[in-house]
Amino acid sequence: MIRPIAITPGEPSGIGPDIVLQWCARGTDRPYFVIANLAMLQQRAHILGVTLELCAIGDRPLTELPFRVGTLWVLDVPMAQAVMPGTLAVANAAYVLATLDLATDLALAGQISALVTGPVQKSIISDAGLSFSGHTEYLRDRCGVEEVVMMLATEGLRVALVTTHLPLSAVSAAIDQPTLKRVTRILYRALIEDFGCTAPRILVSGLNPHAGEGGHLGREEIDTIIPALAALAQEGIATQGPLPADTLFQPHYLERADAVLAMYHDQGLPVLKYRGFGNAVNITLGLPFIRTSVDHGTALDLAGTGQADLGSLDVALQSALDMAEQREQQHA
Ligand SMILES: NC(=O)c1ccc[n+]([C@@H]2O[C@H](COP(=O)([O-])OP(=O)(O)OC[C@H]3O[C@@H](n4cnc5c(N)ncnc54)[C@H](O)[C@@H]3O)[C@@H](O)[C@H]2O)c1
Ligand SMILES: N[C@H](C(=O)O)[C@H](O)COP(=O)(O)O
């Protein structure tokens, strides 16, 4: 039996609480529990007509929780003000981070085997004056690790990113050889350890149109990407690239690859989401614990309606479970 898996539903006025409640109401006895405000979940369950026994964990040891169909265990986190689905409240931004902090502490203490996160509204957390650009960066900093990698995966395609949540104008400066090498090493190791690839095949995109067109459309490929990939090859990490990003996402390349490493968020993720939105998982590679997430945002327009699709949460929960079981078997 693996250690429990924590779920943080994320922004309380978004669809995060809805999808968590609706998914759990389908019936599961796997060791998932939720870190959130109990009263908010009870209110949302009532709005949605979800029948689920919501039980406060209180002081009970997580390892002794009786996980059973029809019951959802909740680690109750105080919240500043009552929630209206679809309406953001700056006052509740600190609560969202408190759920992540608690989950991180439990993960670092070895009390949970994985963390599955629901969507957060980055803007409201920033509006509250709290420093936050995404779970990926927040968990990296909170765990004190230098580098992590955002990778989204759907059936037949994995896309990892060199840079994550930063303005497009800052992307080029953020891509240097040390960063590119660290990111590629993390991706390579994860493909072996968590995804069963014996000799990972990674396609690396260029940054500029046509991968720089021999330096006529930008020099990042020549000055940074090619030398970094050459150095990685010397370490035994073979990659293919830099390839023009507009043509690398085609079967000819993808059927012989385990992952694509894109240079920035909107170079890689639109392709991934076009292929698998609603059925993809976001995984943070390089953390000291497993973290998976949904592929979508807070969808405020759907909160409290019961219309949100549960597909990505399903994939995120299953991926976390699979990775946790595999890691615990490896260490048994
Ligand atoms: N994992 C995360 O924490 C995460 C991921 C992506 C975006 N976000 C955040 O979410 C906020 C809103 O972002 P956005 O509007 O770009 O994206 P969004 O995913 O919230 O919404 C885009 C569109 O997809 C629909 N949609 C999203 N999830 C759905 C679901 N489960 N079922 C059915 N339809 C769904 C929405 O109704 C909307 O029409 C932003 O603050 C963004 O940063 C968070
Ligand atoms: N970049 C992610 C996506 O588009 O799906 C999303 O913003 C979530 O990122 P974090 O996991 O860092 O919050």
Topology:
Elements: E1 5-8, H1 16-25, E2 32-36, H2 38-48, E3 53-56, E4 71-76, H3 93-108, E5 114-117, H4 122-127, H5 135-143, E6 149-154, E7 157-161, H6 171-174, H7 177-193, E8 202-205, H8 220-234, E9 239-243, H9 245-248, H10 251-254, E10 259-262, H11 265-276, E11 281-285, E12 290-294, H12 311-330
The chain binds nicotinamide-adenine-dinucleotide (NAD) and 4-hydroxy-L-threonine-5-monophosphate.
4-hydroxy-L-threonine-5-monophosphate (4TP) binds at residues 134-136, 265, 269, 282, 293, 295.
Q: What report would you give on this structure?
A:
Pfam families: PdxA. With 332 residues, the chain is an alpha/beta fold. It has two domains: 1-145 and 287-331, Isopropylmalate Dehydrogenase (3-Layer(aba) Sandwich); 147-286, Isopropylmalate Dehydrogenase. The chain contains twelve helices and twelve strands. Strands 3-4-2-1-5-12-11-6-7-10-8-9 form a twelve-stranded mixed sheet, sandwiched between helices. β1 (5-8), α1 (16-25) and β2 form a beta-alpha-beta unit. The longest helix has 20 residues, at 311-330. The chain is globular, with a radius of gyration of 20 Å. The structure holds nicotinamide-adenine-dinucleotide and 4-hydroxy-L-threonine-5-monophosphate (4TP). Nicotinamide-adenine-dinucleotide binds next to α4 and β12. 4-hydroxy-L-threonine-5-monophosphate is lined by residues 134-136, 265, 269, 282, 293, 295.
